Amino acid sequence: MTDFRLASVPPATGPLPVTRGAMTLSLADPGPLWSVAPHRGEAAAVSRALQEAIGVSLPGPGRRHAAGGASVQWFGRNLWLVAGVAPPDLPGAAVTDQGDGWVTFDLAGPEGADVMARLIPVDTRPAAMPDQAAIRTELHGMMVAVARTAPDTLRIMGFRSMASTLTRTITEAMERVAAI
Amino acid sequence: MRLTCPHCGERDLREFTYGGAALTRPEGDWSPIWDEYVHLRENPAGRSREFWQHGAGCSAWLVVERDTVTHDIHAVTEAGA
């Protein structure tokens, strides 16, 4: 019998990774993505259940927790994104597979805040956005999530259907920073 | 104009959408108070209470106390909190 398997397709094809000046934009693979929205009054119980099952609890607003291959990122009001591993059965939360909805880029290099200053209305310099900080904002008219996953790396998540627009827009900003 | 979102901090206007005057929904069946709630609005020169949604940020609905003359923002709180 033929063994049919589903193969995952990268959300962005084309020129990635691109390097402009000191900055490199590449496609990141965060693994499976799940949104977790605890029901009213259940956030603490959901956080404990996640801590026990995947070793990462729910961070406060604007933060990200990562351990091993799993991460939990604040994704909005009463909403978190679990990445890397599937969350356990959470009766106190609405859990939705988001893996087909997002494209994830890593913007690495020392001038990340200068590039992002041309793209989003939020200060991403390390003093304002330290390691493991996570925000939601607007980029080129799109809702995005930006997180500092390492001291020199900003992880940008946007709509998967807009992957090529995001690639072009971020690359243009990198070129303009590199041209200074 | 900048609003200080209780979740996201200070953000500028492009992330927010105006959601109308922040009114208290009347109770019960139709009455003239419902008519006022649906149709009649103040147009104050001065302090106003408005709903705004942080659509491009955390998606929260906010109640903003704002002065329409001086553009001062007096308070931003989460609606329903």
Question: Would you mind describing this structure in some detail?
Answer:
Chain B: One of its GO terms (molecular function) is sarcosine oxidase activity. The complex is a heterodimer of chains A (180) and B (81). Chain A has two domains: 18-30 and 100-179, Probable tRNA modification gtpase trme, domain 1 (Gyrase A, domain 2); 33-97. Helix content of chain A is 19%, strand content 36%. Chain A has helices spanning 43-54, 112-117, 163-179; strands at residues 18-20, 23-27, 33-38, 64-67, 70-76, 79-83, 93-97, 102-108, 134-139, 142-150, 153-159. Chain B is mainly beta. Chain B has one domain (2-24, 45-78): Folate-binding superfamily (Folate-binding fold), CATH 3.30.2270.10. In chain B, 10% of the residues lie in helices and 41% in strands. In chain B, the strands form two sheets. Chain B has a four-stranded antiparallel β-sheet, with no helix packed on it. In chain B, strands 1-2 form a two-stranded antiparallel ribbon. Chains A and B meet through strand 9 of A and strand 2 of B.
Helical proportion of chain B, percent range? under 10%
CATH class of chain B: Alpha Beta
Please provide the count of β strands of chain B: 6
Low-confidence stretches of chain B: none
Question: In sequence order, what are the helices and strands of chain A, one letter per element?
Answer: EEEHEEEEEHEEEH
Indicate the proportion of strand residues of chain B.
35-45%
Q: Which structural class do the helices and strands of chain A define?
A: alpha+beta
Q: What is the CATH architecture assignment of the largest domain in chain A? A: 2-Layer Sandwich
Assign the CATH topology of the largest domain in chain A. Gyrase A, domain 2
Low-confidence stretches of chain A: none
Strand order of the largest sheet of chain B: 3-4-5-6
Q: Separation of termini of chain B?
A: 24 Å
Order of helices and strands of chain B: EEEHEEE
How many helices of chain A?
Answer: 3
* Count of discrete structural domains of chain B: 1
